[in-house]
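Q: What would this chain look like folded?
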Amino acid sequence: MSGPTSIAPDAGPVTTTHHALWLPGLAFAAGGAVAATVVAAAADAAGVSLEIAGERIPLLGFTQLAFVFSVVGIALAAAFRRWSGRPARAFVRTAVALVAVSLLPDLLAPDTDAATRVTLIATHIAVAALVIPGLRSRLR
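A: My prediction, written as structure tokens:
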């Protein structure tokens, strides 16, 4: 496809390109990674240990994991855009469910204090608050 709107044979109008989702999606992923890192850094500055079972989570770990899992979200959004009749709705429901499931390890992590658990959960929510609405807006 050469532009934002083209006609596919026997398929009706196609109104988006890969760039309309992937490029902004990567920007949302980068923003989510920054948000996770800022939340973790603020907690670290406030004295939160950021340790799970005696091992400290490096700040760059928050950045990397937030970005990687946001890219997984972009891939899900692309799949829903391609194969779902209501891609925005399907994506949001799936993404929210996956965020909820992703909180379980934070809640169940051994030898982790409450402040660290709250910080871990806050990083997930910060990323989701940026990435999910951003990708949803590209699926309309």
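The chain has a mean pLDDT of 90.
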